[in-house]
Amino acid sequence: MKKKTLFFLIISVLIFTSGLIAQEHHASNLSLLPWPKKVIPGNGQHILTENFSLRISGNFDKRIYRAATSFLNRLDQRTGLLLTNKDISSQTNKTSEGQKMEIRIERPGKTVLFEDESYSLQVKNEKIILSSVTDLGAMHGLESLLQLLQSDEQHYFFPQLTIEDSPRFAWRGLMIDVARHYLPLSVLKRNIDAMATVKLNVFHWHLSDDQGFRVEIKSYPELHKKASDGLFYTQDEIREIVRYASDRGIRVVPEIDVPGHATAILTAYPELASKDTTYTLERNKGIFHATLDPTKEATYTFMESVISELAVLFPDAYFHIGGDENEGKHWDESSRIRKFKKEHQIKDNHQLQTYFNIRLQKILKANQKRMMGWDEILEPGLPKDIVIHSWRGKEAMIKAAKQGYKSVLSKGYYIDLLFDTKTHYENDPISDSDGLNPEEVKNILGGEATMWGELVDANNVDSRIWPRTAAIAERFWSASSVNDFDFLVKRLNAISVQLEASGLDHIKSRDRILRGLFHTNDIEAFRTLSEICRPITARERVGKPYKTYYPLTLFVDACTPDNPLTMHFNKLVRVYLTKQDQDIESEIKSYLLNWKKNHDRLLQKHRSPTLTALLPLSEAIAELSGLLLQKIETKKKFDKVEQERINVLLDRLDTPVLNVRSAITADLKLLSENINTP
To answer: Which residues form the active site (predicted)?
Structure first.
């Protein structure tokens, strides 16, 4: 009897386990990003027709109406069903029976830190039910539902399933620097739309730096007259962006970077400077010494006016003061400041900056704002309600958390550095090795991707932010156990296309740049080369000629850190090296043949200095692709002469040309090594 019971128990476990495996396999076919906390796949489909309709019930305001209308419009655009029932009904509408979807909301959400963003989504064959505490959760659920859209030969449909979801971190941000290069409102809006798609909820707006002050301050009008090159946001435009973001559940946190990074401020008001000299807007990149004078009362009068005007425009509780990279050179050179330090028993520049920050904190508190700053501001004497923005390393975040400060991590999420997606994705904000206890973990609010503006403008900024930031968004929303990179790539490619459909330029900007650069509509050969090149990292570009007015429409600006084609080729090579699959081999050979032929196509093009510079790289890719193709087909090894030639070609591929290098060098090297492996 015991043996029978054990037998049936084993069978039950096997059936249950196989069911879980089947569910996981089913779920893995979904393009959800970020991945939800819990996904329970079903077996059916909710088939869409032109009669699809939607009802909202519960306690809500107009924001969810606008979000639901946007959902229906985008659904219509992606299916062409020509939905006939776009008028959304509510619980007060007595004719609401028969709706295919219902959104149930308990209350309107506030666009504030720690608001409830959870939701549950049930997709059944006959009806879809989206439930949430707040409309913020409902808006996240709508984005997830739109990502679920699938089709077969006959229908568009949503797969039957249940989702229970909520974010891992409350602060999931994207910082965009508009000081180095001004970005039009339309660019900001489409990036805010993209943020909403992947459930980011903080737009950190870096408004001032050495190269520009981009916001109208009516009490100090010389700021936008002298320190912006005429490119700034009026106060009405600021309100417009804040409203636009709030309508999508996104907070807007402004940053005015002080006391360093102040060249633009001092161009307009040099009397606030630590050093008596002439200031003009910086056209270079780097760390400069222009610094506000923390010993002058006029400095605090200025900051009080700036903060009080911006406090009205930005309703969020947090105000970012920057506070980074102040080396104190002009403070050390000033006899007046040295005297002040001595009189006030301030022993060094760190304490002097803390004195400045404490003064600012009082101004912020008077305007009902809490201070946020880069991790340099973490010094004794500041209240525990400030937020430390860690950029130099996790150590500052951990130190702040242990001291009772809230913190946000950006180290590892500097997308301006042009690292690949995998580097960012594998950087988890918290790990067991950080040594934080449960209470200290609560002090980690989340993280921000940072798009510094030295090498971006309206032409290329989308391709520098997306789709890599979608991968970072998953790190902020999903559990740390969601970390399979191949699974991410599969979903990332699908979401990238959806992001373009929502208005982003990150895909089509490449072709526009190539057409303009090579003066032709026939750009197929140039596109092929750009797909297998990647920009060198921003750190590698240190010391190279740079001015803020240099064009950002060059070949490097048409290349991305992670082209979907090269990511796919990388996976093909990895799989091929583990199993010599014929289908995979055929696909690899197809790529190699195309790259071999592409050089001849480029040789037929009208010559230009850009093309002339790129031809040696193209030639090396073509020759190496040809050698590999020949050996794969003949199944022969390289002889000594051929191997030496391959090494020369690999070195050439890894040598930067026009700030790009081959993105397939490592994969071609692996193939060559595999061919010569017994």
So the answer is: 325
Classify residue 173 as left (phi > 0), alpha (psi -120 to 50) or beta.
beta
Burial of 15 (0-12, 13-18, 19+ CB in 10 A): exposed
Q: pLDDT tier at 14 (50, 70, 90 boundaries)?
A: very low
Give catalytic status of residue 50 as yes or no: no
What would the CATH number be for the domain defined by 508-675? 1.20.58
pLDDT in tens, 23-57: 444 467 999 999 999 999 999 999 999 999 999 99
**29-165 in CATH: which number?**
3.30.379.10
Strand 119-123 vs strand 156-165: parallel, antiparallel, or unpaired? Answer: antiparallel
Kindly tell me if the per-residue pLDDT of 601 is higher than 70: yes
CA 94 to chain centre: 44
The domain locations on the chain are 29-165, 171-485, 508-675
Buried b (16+ CB within 10 A) or exposed e, 619-653: ebbbbbbbbbbebbeeeeebeeebbeebeebbebb
Q: What is the pLDDT of residue 503?
A: 95
Give the C-alpha separation, 584 to 567, whole Å.
Answer: 15
Neighbours of 49 (CB within 10 A): 12
Q: What is the CATH number of domain 171-485?
A: 3.20.20.80
The residue annotated as part of the active site, out of 237, 325, 379, 585, is 325
DSSP 8-state symbol, 540: G
| Lookup result for tokens 């907070």 | 251
Sign of CA dihedral 210, 215, 217, 218: positive
What pTM value is reported for the model? 0.94
